[in-house]
Amino acid sequence: MNQELKECFDNVKDSVNAALGHYQIWFTLRGKGKAIDEYYDDMNDYRFVDFFRASNIAHYKLMFIETGCIFDTDDRTDRFRRLKELMNENGLSELSEKFGDRLKPYKALVSNILTVRSKLIAHKESGVEPPELYQKHGIKPDDIKDLLLCLAALMNELESELNGGASWSTIGPTERWEKATYGLLEVLRKGRNS
Length: 194
Known about the structure:
Elements: H1 3-30, H2 35-43, H3 49-70, H4 80-89, H5 93-103, H6 107-121, H7 130-137, H8 141-162, H9 176-192
């Protein structure tokens, strides 16, 4: 495998895994119908509440930062666009085209995520009100989840291609971070109640 392609793949893969992980932890802790309904008292315990508040903020922001890294517009960065170019240069044009086709429905969402990242997360633009910005750009958690799962599936497919069809994987559509969050909350509850 071409070294430049491998390095770019590894960097994009790390951002996809990170974005998906941060999304799942944040949404599991804060999402409607998720852990907050069942574990509110555990998370609100005076000994832990500050941890959960900081964790929510951090995972939320990092989800936007890592998703932004995947679709960065800077030509000096390893990003999805560069990965597709390297795939084309290394005989993976058909797979590269498939990536483009599968991500086409997310074009507006990606643009909106980059706008939010730029105005609220990476920078603090004066006069920007978060609720108004989210409403204007129509960003919904389920849409972000769908995008990230699509990216993970595509990266899994590329990884398999690069590894000669190997069945093991370091990336893929999974709910492992959500399960880990619930596991942590269950241990916390048992510890609180013992």
